[in-house]
Amino acid sequence: MRTFSRCQIIGRRFPICHVHVDDTYVEVSYPFPDLCFNLFGFPLDQGSHANDVCTLSVIDQVSSFSTSAARSRGDLSLAFGDPGSCDDEDYKRWKNCLQRDFTINGLMFDPYAKLVYDYTGGVDDIKKAKVRTIAAASHSLMEDCARILRAIRIAARLGFRFERETALTIKRLSHTVRRLDRGRLLMEMNYMLAFGSAEASLRLLWRFGLLEVLLPIQAAYLVQIGFRRRDKSSNMLLSLFSNLDKLLGPDRPCHNSLWVAILALHKALSDEPRDPLVVAAFSLSVYNGGDLSEALDISRKIDETHDRSFHELLEHQNLKRSTLKDKVLHLASSVLDAVSSMTDVYCVSRAMAAYPQAPHSDLVIIPLPLFLSVCRIFECVKRGKEKGFAPKHCNKIDYELLASGSLSEVRHVFARVVFDTIYPITSS
């Protein structure tokens, strides 16, 4: 914090530093290395030496590299033999690699010689699309439980599978992620849900027993509908995030208020199924800043067939305009109630009471500022058209505004995701 004027420390045991630069940030590992590399692997210090290297990660930021390594072999993994006779620089690289989490994150790059050093079989595991810990999985994941969430994120975003020992250990130690502070948990969840791999992340979190710890309400929903751990079918929750993924990417993320808003809408619909036109009119009203009259007029002209596989949606009921308006306002209240319940320890605990076979969790990772941001997305439906609000009139997404939490951009993408889920585009 003495080095950077605008930074935030995340995590307790293995802290990292978010250095804010304009509207984005760069992750810097602690302790601050002798040579700092930015996200693209270029040295910030142009006067550095040719033997400087940085640790490469296939999914995370560029990591720090310790330039002092004592010749003490007692703490090194037995899975990788001592390189024996080698110079000090090679020994430092080797020892640094053994301190990383996964083999695919244990590669080192010399940007001057353009060489990649691989001491743990990381390149081979990348070719095999495999996530494997460098040290024994039980030791590695117990040492730092954040690695469990990082493993899920890597597998989801890249479509990798887990090596058997790593998979079994993740499932056995899934409950240990509660040791992490809530800020770190929110950061990890945002990495999973806001960068184009939300559906795959939710499936893996459910498969390995992490969803009931991190998102207990959504885990209770999957239990309620009888969704199995390795179930390859879909449901409305997964479809919503699948359609969100189609609009995002690792370099085109959304603000975390968007995925929380989607969770809130789904909870309201799973608690009380609605007519598809009610959901459509509600989404249109959110999109246009609370102009409910216009939303009702447009929704009543919809003649598309909705997805009948979702139990959260009723059959069309040919509602009168006044009745449709009342039901939209009721849905708006239900969604706001859902946002509140997701941030209330008692409500989360009560949801888990119907799920006794899962480890109890009353964890709430949504802080007050995020709660208020999500409420602001929906409050316009009840309050009426916002003065000066200008909805988008094109389908193009401004990803910089979306990542920063621009209200109009978040509402625009929210409405698109909901419509694509309720009225899926068919081949015809």
From TrEMBL:
Domain Poly A polymerase head: 96-132
Keywords in alphabetical order: Nucleotide-binding, RNA-binding, Transferase
Entries under InterPro entries matching the protein: NT_sf, PolA_pol_head_dom, PolyA_RNA-bd, tRNA_ntf/polyA_polymerase_I
Gene Ontology molecular-function annotations: nucleotide binding; nucleotidyltransferase activity; RNA binding
One of the GO biological process terms: tRNA 3'-terminal CCA addition
Pfam families: PolyA_pol, PolyA_pol_RNAbd
Domain tRNA nucleotidyltransferase/poly(A) polymerase RNA and SrmB- binding, chain residue ranges per copy: 159-221
UniProt record similarity statement: Belongs to the tRNA nucleotidyltransferase/poly(A) polymerase family.
Protein name stated in the entry: mRNA polyadenylation factor
Source organism phylogeny: Eukaryota, Viridiplantae, Streptophyta, Embryophyta, Tracheophyta
